[in-house]
Amino acid sequence: IKNVREDDLDPIIALIHELQVAAADRDLERFFDLSFQFLEHAYPFARNGFVEDVLTDLHPALQRTYFMALHLDNDEMKECLSFFKALVETIFRRDVRSALEIIREFAEHQSELVQESITRARQMAGAGVVVGLQHRRIGGPTAEIENHQRLVGARRGERAAHGHLLSLIHL
User: Fold this and answer.
1) Which of 30-34, 62-66, 129-133 has the highest mean pLDDT?
2) Alpha carbon separation from 56 to 31, 65, 83, 111, 130 (Å, rounded)
3) 4 to each of 14, 15, 17, 19, how far by Cα in Å?
4) C-alpha to C-alpha distance for 76 and 110, rounded to whole angstroms
5) C-beta of residue 4 within 8 angstroms of C-beta of residue 45
């Protein structure tokens, strides 16, 4: 983590405040957009061009899994906000080990949440039940399950890429 002055973190801290407002308003769409703005501001603090490039390449898969995680659990915005705040603290302290641990734990948490969702969706599809994610209702066409799986990166290549991201954290 590069040397950080307080004013280096001003844009990130402003985003934290905006994320808090979006969470309080339960505005998932705004929270989602602000989250990726936050991450884009945080990438350069790693001072690792390779990791920054990998994260940029994985951006679409990360967006799908993050979108799904936010919609699966009503408390996920709080969880994400806690992650962002903790990450800012570790950046300010230049505590690389803690930052890596926080990122690893958060990535594993999100991964587990999404994997559980895929498993439930497959079980429901096998039982002939389809879940409408946006409205949290039962019903709708079978194609919605396929869309659900696509959104969360259920394809093998994207799951492998997600696993690759977790392994990069241990570098």
Assistant:
1) 30-34
2) 19, 15, 19, 18, 33
3) 16, 17, 20, 22
4) 9
5) yes
